[in-house]
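Structure catalogue
Derive tokens from sequence
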Amino acid sequence: MSTNHSDMQINNLSKLRRGLLNLRHKINPVIIFIGPAVILVILISIYPTIRVLYLSTLEYSKKTFEYSFVGLQNYIALFKNPIFSKILKQTWDFSLYSTAGHIGLGFILALIMNSGLNRRFVSASRALILLPWAVSPIVIAMIAQIWSHPLISPIGHVLKFFNSSIEFMPLGMPGQAMTALIIINIWQFTPFYLLMILSALQGIDPELYEAAKVDGATGLKQTRYITLPLIRNVLLTLTMFDFVTTAAYFDLIWVTTQGGPVRSTDVLATFIYRAGFLTQDWARAAAASVLLLIFVFIVAAIIQIIMRRGE
């Protein structure tokens, strides 16, 4: 009996093995390799997005402790709120000026580093420039608070030394706080875009510049007619990536100002955090999240159209 039982188990295992082998031959190998990644994207990106879309159409009742469907009422309430309109403008300003600073300053510094300067100087300056990007945003925020504090700021002490009546506290002034945050953000993240642009510049054939010099082209004309056209798509791709990430930026703003003073630095990311985690209004936070998603999608789509037209 034991021998027959063992034979049956062996036969069953053989059939199972043959079945798995046949199944493996029938399934496209591409599906086997891509399948896990697709499932991961669905679980991490697509499902949460659908869930947020659904949550944005609900309203939580504190009386019944239940959610009810309200359609687009959360979106209508947001746009009727004058503070939210201000937050949208501030998000646009922060994203636009930060992105312009990152790409513009990164491009200029990359041109300087790629212009044939001393290698030791370039290596040393690159290490110093990369330092802010390598530091945690929380540390950058703490440094910014020290520099803008009216009592311990080095700049404040210099102003007092010269008996100046100017109070240096940019993060504490509604008219200066957003500008200060944009400057800090540019200082922190420009090194990353500098490296990307420098890599693109180093991929350009030097013979093109030599031929342009023979034809009498100045450095400005070389930049305009050789450099910019050849790295155009790189610059546009970096601009799109930068704008999308900056529009959702949270760390520096929350640690330094928490959206203040008088909500002068409040952006969509801080608004969503405050609505969801502090006031537990998850439906309103979800609606604002959807608007942020639409906002960055429109900007990304416009940049993609510009890239295709230039091809």
In short: Residues 2-55 form one domain.
